[in-house]
Amino acid sequence: MTIDDSSDGSGAATGRFLLGGDLPINRLGFGAMRLPAGTFRGAVRDPETGIAVLRRVVELGVNHLDTAGFYARGEVRANALIHAALAPYTEDLVIATKVGPLRGPDGVPSGQATPDQLRGLVQEDLRTLGVDRLDLVYLRVGGMTGPGGESIADRFAVLAELREKGLIRHLGVSNVDAAQLAEARTVAPVTAVQNHFHVQNTGDAALLAECEAAGIAYVPFFPIGGGSSPLDEARLGKVAARHGATAVQIALAWLLATSPVLLAIPGTGSLGHLEENVAAGGIRLTGADLAELEG
Known about the structure:
The chain has helices at 47-59, 78-86, 115-129, 153-164, 178-187, 205-214, 237-243, 247-258, 271-279, 287-294, and strands at residues 2-3, 16-19, 23-26, 30-31, 64-66, 72-73, 76-77, 94-99, 101-103, 109-112, 134-140, 168-174, 192-194, 217-218. By secondary structure, the protein is an alpha/beta fold. The strands form four sheets. The protein has a seven-stranded parallel sheet, covered by helices on one side. The longest helix is centred in the middle third of the chain and has 15 residues, at 115-129.
């Protein structure tokens, strides 16, 4: 369910979504994955820069942060940066986290937690973020490959149990196919799905439509390209030129125009890129723009 909100040119200008029917969040959020490093194997970034980016995030009206305990490089960890930059948190700030992947010796999340290990991961997120209850916890399924091929009920049941105990407010699933989403929904309410999707990677459109019909938030990871599906910026160039915008901004504007349940969470470790991303919330694509981008 969405609430219209065009109050200004900040992160709130894209409207709000009621997560789980009771938690309003602005549709343009922020992903924390790139705060510790550009990639899981990349050079460690200056934590003070990460703290400055996070403080600017909330100044720009963004109130949805997406993080994970495995967003870390060396001693620089996204959750610790969020706590250092923003605690005590404002009442309207929504922090989503993901559990499931386990980091290997090289720091890359290559293993999967067992049901028993998931409890410890949730407790660790509570501790590092400095909260008594997590707003939204996704069960992230699988490794670096695509979704499907395994049951998730036993692991999702652990998160459902922690929700019943009051440690989690809302539950989500990430990197799942339609069968896995349906399985999770037999265990507990699912309020958000986080899958790979962007303007040039629309293979998950059917699942997005299913989420829209059910009022479930759909939150793309790599919303402006990344992983095995980079953004072809030249293909977006004509639309970008008409709006005096960058290709990245058009990719974000397209996401926000695609479905009212879609929440964009572009991530960056740069103040300049952050400003660019948030400004995309003020772009209104025309029918002709959309036809060209989807053609």
